[in-house]
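@channel sequence for tomorrow's demo:
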Amino acid sequence: MSGIESIGEVFFSHYLLLYLQKMRNLVIAVFLMLLGATVTSSVHSYRMTESTIVEDLNQALVKTVLTRTEQYITPDTIVAYRSFLREQALRQYAGLCYALPGERRPAMCSSTMYLKSDEGKVCLRGYANCSAATIFALSDQRLSLVLSLLTFIWFFLGVRRMGLRRGALAAVNAGCAAEAPLHSPLAGRLSYDASTGSFFVDADHEIHFTPMQRQIMVMFATTADHTLTKNEICQALWPRKDDPNESLYTFIKRLKKTLADSHCQASVESDRGRAYRLR
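structure tokens (generated this afternoon):
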């Protein structure tokens, strides 16, 4: 069951990682779309307000020209011009000015009107000397405000959701790391897991020993130089047997065969006829 559970945890961890990558891309893509829509809506509203201001300047200039009695711009002319403006917020900024024929027209001014006077043709324009902040305040930014709130909410929820998923992924990885066996290399491709008393080839294929073989292999693994004397082996396996040499020879022969069949590239070798070493 532990192997199946480990595979399930690895699969779930891999799924979470893919999910986080897709979620991150989705959060960024939608965030950029909402941000772009917010900026576009705000700029569009600003430009529409500019156009509305210019139209207001034009209609006020036409009414001023039609109702004027003097040939020159006077304070009364400016007062009349401002009174014709539909947008009251512009009245404190608006004014009239003479212009040269063919002169380039600034963005925030009315169309040029040509008037006849005793001295010839006179060019007249209306201006709104207001700042960009004033135009922005006059524009309808309700849609951009809603979009900006949606952008913030989406970003906050997306980051929070990714944070929760990252926490779950970290917990799964921590669980896998905690449950992963700690293999100590012994000889060749052979390793030992002290937590379970198991032996592995390349840390993933378990070697199945007999109980007596496992007992001696654990003794080999837990000694400093992986060496056991004949007497230590005999006392561990046949403590009451008077002459266990024949049994020891047979046991070592079978243990060598088990190691050879596992292809772990480790074996038990005699050390000057007095001990055996795992190497």
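heads up for whoever presents: Residues 1-12, 176-180 have pLDDT under 50 and may be disordered.
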